[in-house]
TrEMBL record:
This is Amidohydrolase. Pfam families: CN_hydrolase. It comes from Kiloniella litopenaei. The lineage of its organism: Bacteria, Pseudomonadati, Pseudomonadota, Alphaproteobacteria, Rhodospirillales. One of its GO terms (molecular function) is hydrolase activity, acting on carbon-nitrogen (but not peptide) bonds, in linear amides. InterPro entries: C-N_Hydrolase, C-N_Hydrolase_sf, Nit1/2_C-N_Hydrolase, UPF0012_CS. Belongs to the carbon-nitrogen hydrolase superfamily. NIT1/NIT2 family. It comes from the Bacteria. Residues 4-251 form the CN hydrolase domain.
Length: 273
């Protein structure tokens, strides 16, 4: 089977899991009602806490995390592949993990991915971000198996590092992902361009659910969840409000794009002087 329907859930996360979890589940149910067999949510799906101390206090271990349990049960109830863009998970170290989960239609955790690249920047609108102070960077790239295709897992700032997506495509991924909480400032400048580039250069579908709106302490995220075809066409765009987008994924389009421009087969080793 080479086709399936994918959905992105776009929302505005509160600073507490228990506030956001219900609305997130409602949107996932809405996506299922529209026929989606694979549903993706944004980075930090249920919590965007700007305070480092509070983030670490609220970051529960995976085995005790209420959102992990709720999303597992929801995936099994709906019989869908549920890709939670990330949850803030406590670890035994001094920093938390920014961890994505892929739940099977049986509610099992089919794959996990900890965000590798940390967003440590001061952007021109005056906001400062130092993710590495709060989160332990991941060290393992992940390609997960869906019934239809191989799925490369990434999170937000990872999208600026093409080698990660290239490695996933070379490993067999035909769908690349980048669930995000992109800032409004950087999103307006770069979001569409970066995601289209990752699709085109690898001949892959790209699916990226985004946070949107104004969060605690005035942080603004860009929204515009996207589903992009391997030739670079935008199949669905979530705009700037909470909601759901759906798109039909025809994996024959991967072969078509790669037949026209087979750059995935033309990588070469080189030296740099």
């Amino acid at each position: 089977m080479n086709t399936f329907k994918a959905a992105c859930v776009q929302l505005t996360a509160d600073r507490d899991d228990d506030v956001t979890l219900g609305p997130a589940c409602d949107l996932i149910r809405q996506a299922h009602g529209l026929g989606a067999e694979y549903v993706q949510t944004p980075e930090c799906t249920t919590m965007m806490e700007p305070n480092k101390k509070l983030t670490l206090e609220k970051a529960l271990p995976e085995k005790n995390h209420p959102s992990v349990k709720a999303f597992s049960e929801l995936a099994a109830e709906l019989g869908i592949w549920l890709h939670i863009g990330s949850l803030i998970v406590g670890t035994q170290e001094k920093r938390a993990a920014n961890r994505a989960f892929l739940f099977s239609p049986q509610g099992e955790i089919a794959a996990r991915y900890d965000k590798i690249h940390m967003f440590d920047v001061v952007i021109p609108d005056g906001q400062s971000y130092r993710e590495s102070a709060t989160f332990r960077p991941g060290e393992q790239a992940v390609v997960a198996k869906l019934p239809w295709a191989e799925l490369g897992m990434a999170i937000c700032y990872d999208v600026r590092f093409p080698y990660l997506f290239r490695a996933q495509a070379k490993k067999g991924a035909t769908i690349l992902t980048a669930p995000a909480a992109f800032t409004k400032f950087t999103g307006e400048a770069h979001w569409h361009t970066l995601l289209k580039a990752r699709a085109i250069e690898n001949g892959c579908f790209v699916i990226a659910a985004g946070q949107c709106g104004v969060h605690a302490e005035g942080r603004e995220t860009y929204g515009h969840s996207l589903v992009i075809a391997p030739w670079g066409e935008i199949l669905a765009d979530g705009g700037d409000q909470p909601g759901v987008i759906v798109a039909d994924i025809d994996l024959d389009r991967v072969k078509q794009a790669r037949d026209m421009v087979p750059s995935i087969n033309h990588d070469r080793d080189f030296t740099l002087s």
